[in-house]
Amino acid sequence: MTPAARAAETIWRAALDAVDPYRAVQRAFSVEGDTLRVGGAVFDLTGRRIRIVGGGKAAVPMTEALVDLLGGRIDGGLVIAKRGHGEDRGALGKVAIRAGGHPLPDAEGASAAAELVALLTDRPAAGDLVVVLVSGGGSSLLALPEPGLSLEHLRRASDAFILGGANIAQLNALRRHLTRLSGGRLARLAAPARAVALILSDVVGDPLEVIASGPTAPDPTTFADAVAAVVELGLEGAMPAPVIDHLRRGAAGEIEETPKPGDPVFDRAVNRVVAGNRTAVEAAAEKARELGFDTEIASLDLRGEARERGKELAARGAAIARGGEGVRPPACLVFGGETTVHVRGKGRGGRNQELALAAALELEALGDERCGVVAISTDGQDGPTDAAGAAVDGATCRRARAAGVDPGAALDDNDSYAALEAAGALIRTGPTRTNVADLALVLVS
Predict the structure, then answer these.
(1) Closest to 83 (Cα-Cα) out of 62, 64, 116, 55
(2) What is the CATH number of the domain that holds 83?
(3) Are both 293 and 199 inside the same structural domain?
(4) Which residues have CB under 8 Å from 70's CB, separation 6+?
(5) What is the pLDDT of residues 318-335, one digit of tens each?
(6) Structural domain for 365, as ranges
(7) What's the whole-number mean pLDDT along residues 145-157?
(8) Judging by DSSP bridges, how do beta strands 269-275 and 194-200 pair with one another?
(9) Alpha-carbon 66 to chain mean position
């Protein structure tokens, strides 16, 4: 491993360490005697029944932290983890662990979500405390369809919206009105108990209503918004009939709306983001400075088409090497966010691999081998692959060709995995048990 590659790995590992869910929860919670502090909220634990519920890729380590902090004070609970992310533990103390499907919800996850609902509706009292653990993947893992709807209905409706060109606001309006725990309804179920949500954010800007579809946050959208989106997108004929019927009955007032901003249920709820993409980005920048790099946090809003952003990051690196940027070599630019890929080919990869391969091609075209670009998904899985992302430089494409893979053709076929594997550029971390969107680095030696 070259010194530059070692430095890059040191930096991104520092970012992952900073968003470790166990430590993030322990930083957020303070227990002294019978007093619990979460942010500015203070709770007297004397005589309180404490339950732990939630879902997401980080559900198990977040639960581990609470069990270690609260021990025998926990009365019970249930959390749902992505299959392969620690659900084989079965239980942590009195908290049951269940598995569910992600990115597509499955029957096992829906059954677990039904168990969670039953737990919350089991004689709740005003003195109870419900701690809700929310992390990326929660939208799928907590996807319990409303009565009269099935998982297949949810899947077909979501697919129709995505293929129909729905924006994120339209998609969220749909999802929050088809499942029983999203759009603030978990907080409603927990009432009259106090609810404290500890949230590991995988969404740029940490909007509470978007992270895992906002189970404990006010929902600014309505059934009418969802119906309007169906009409605007021209999807009346593409949506399952039970979904259309459900949305229209909701818009007509026949089904209870999700709780809105100002609803009294949120007077008894505390939402606390314990870590997010900014946490990872700032930790990466701090470590880069420690290693002697002139460092800049370039963006906390890296979005758009992955291959276009990859070209731009490579160009930024080349500009630094030529002395045309504010930082001077050795330099490091840090980016946080989440790009997208429009799949047109038949290959395999993920948004970070596509960004990295496009960056490698651009660095080669610019003729600059002093620059490197790293792009990783913080959950350790970039797309349907075993890689978290990739680290590339101006020689990456040459190495891929030497191994018999044309990197340009691979990018055209959305086959970034094959090219980066051939070049030895993939980063494999395995499941990290965290999820705060993506991290990208531009390094100039």
Answers:
(1) 55
(2) 3.40.50.10180
(3) no
(4) 31, 50
(5) 999 988 778 899 999 999
(6) 278-444
(7) 94
(8) parallel
(9) 21
